[in-house]
Amino acid sequence: MRTARAEPERLRAFIGREARAAGFDMVAFTTPDAAPSAPARLAEFLSEGRHGSMEWMAETAMRRARPRALWPDVRSIVMLGMNYGPEEDPLPVLEQRDRAAISVYARNRDYHDLIKGRLKQVAGKLAAKAGEDVKVFVDTAPVMEKPLAAAAGLGWQGKHTNLVSRELGSWLFLGSIFTTVEIAPDRPETDHCGSCRACLDICPTEAFPAPYQLDARRCISYLTIEHKGPIPHEFRAKMGNRIYGCDDCLAVCPWNKFARTASEAKLQAREDLKAPALADLLDLDDRAFRAFFSGSPVKRIGRDRFVRNVLIAAGNSDARDLIPRCERLARDEAPLVRGAAVWALSRLLDPAAFDALARRLRPIEGDPEVQAEWDRAEQEVLA
Ligand code: SF4
């Protein structure tokens, strides 16, 4: 924790102790106006349409850009960070094409649930000690946590736009407590990216139009989690076996050499989510999906979107033993699943077998988008 002013030092020290007791690794303080360039950056992101279908970002832009629009009485913001550094490098699983890569943050419990309870615990102590009001936010709320965390000195927004900490690298969950108490702010952290561009260069989909700018529409995290329709064709091969999120730009950050492995059991990866077999994931019906991902953030995207992603990975796998499963999913109830299955089969089957299957299934397909998948796949396979 960085100290800027002496008063009220006791309250700052008290919050620091309570935050650490609740399991946070970093805590620092800032003010609602401490990130003055954030509204302009957000406006540019939105005006370029880089938020894709995340309309909620535009709808909450006013409150998101200005903490006082969210809560006029806020005078100080406590920013907290929790390390979720993985035990192993998450990149080698990308080479195991019959296995799935799930983003590190999603390999255990939903961190929103985990952090929210702890933020409330710290906020409750703060409110009782200071006799003032508090509100807690994790990133489902319209708060620009990354610029506020940078303003508080927890780290800086790296070229990949996420927060980078000198102590914890790029693996950080963030949360904030707004309060009516006046607390001396910390100094902002400065940018230590230097000439490094590892995160920009590794991105498989060229999602960074420039350093410090992200086009979410091209980001695999957005495409696999937020995007509801079929995955755009230009990104399918580039997704590889990433079926939920992408860690590439975080994982190559050189500041991770200072990261610690998440010590708590709740932040450590579930063994069965480290590199699950695509075959097993393709077998999940709605009930099995909900049971397998109970308590996990993956559950939020629902079975159909999830299986869509797994089918794209299957199409990128060369694992011909997945063909029977993909054929079954080409008859699935959900058009989203059927369309992705068509694409996977067009990559796994030899042209004659695909043509034979298309002759059977294309005539009975009633959904225009899936019909278009068949037509496009047939053209590509027979070209
Ligand atoms: Fe690119 Fe992956 Fe980073 Fe998204 S998460 S910007 S796809 S490297």
Structure characterization notes:
With 383 residues, the protein is α+β, with helices and mostly antiparallel strands. 42% of the residues lie in helices and 9% in strands. The strands form 3 sheets. It has a 4-stranded antiparallel beta sheet with strand order 1-2-7-4, sandwiched between helices. Strands 3-8 form a two-stranded parallel ribbon. α16 packs parallel to α18 (368-382). The longest helix is centred in the first third of the chain and has 20 residues, at 111-130. Iron/sulfur cluster binds at residues 160, 202-205, 207, 214, 219-221, 246, 248-249.
Tell me the distance between the termini. Answer: 61 Å
Lateral strand order in the biggest sheet: 1-2-7-4
Average pLDDT rating:
92
Approximate strand percentage: 5-15%
Helix count, DSSP H or I runs of 4 or more residues? 18
User: Which class do the helix and strand fractions yield?
Assistant: alpha+beta
Instruction: Give a quick account of the main beta sheet: strands, pairing sense, barrel closure.
Output: 4 strands, antiparallel
Query: What is the number of strand segments?
Result: 8
CATH architecture classification name of the domain at 8-89 and 104-179: 3-Layer(aba) Sandwich
What share of the residues lie within helices? 40-55%
Distinct ligand kinds:
iron/sulfur cluster
SSE pattern, N- to C-terminal: HEHHHHEEHEHEEEHHHEHHHHHHHH
Weakly predicted, low-confidence segments? 1-7
**Gyration radius, in Å:** 23 Å
Described by the principal axes of the CA atoms, the overall outline is: elongated
Q: CATH topology of the domain at 8-89 and 104-179, what is it called?
A: NADH Oxidase
CATH class label of the domain at 8-89 and 104-179? Alpha Beta
